[in-house]
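User: Structure please.
Assistant: Input sequence and predicted structure:
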Amino acid sequence: MKLASPFRSSVMTVKPEWIDFNGHLNMAYYNVLFDQCADEVYEQLGFGPDYQKSGCTTYTGEFHLCYLRELHVDDAVTVTLQVLDYDEKRFHTYQEIWHQDGWCAASGEAMTLHVDQSGPHVAPMPSAILARLEALHAAHSDLPRPARAGCSIGIRRKD
């Protein structure tokens, strides 16, 4: 029996212009890596570049990122994406950036909205796209819920 696995992006390389004055990947470019992976998945779902011309698109409503380990220039990475939940108007995903040496550099979690641009307002997805999203979610349904999914931010004080 084949075990479920999250979607894995093509290999991406950290570019020199993405490095900050601390000598590692600038925080903004972790999001670029997550977004490039999402673009690969979105193409398969039917949300490719031409979809925006239909009058609808997707917006990221919320995104949480956890930095786990530094990335440096020329590091090769892949990014995974797991669909945690969905309904007719939105979907909840979890992603991880994996270094070619096998360690996780960051995790990200998103709530994506399907948007009718005439408002703009959140609107139901077309049935064909919803069916592909349902199939991807089903393929991920046997995966464990990631430990960092749903984490909140704050300062915990001892009383």
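The chain has two helices and seven strands.
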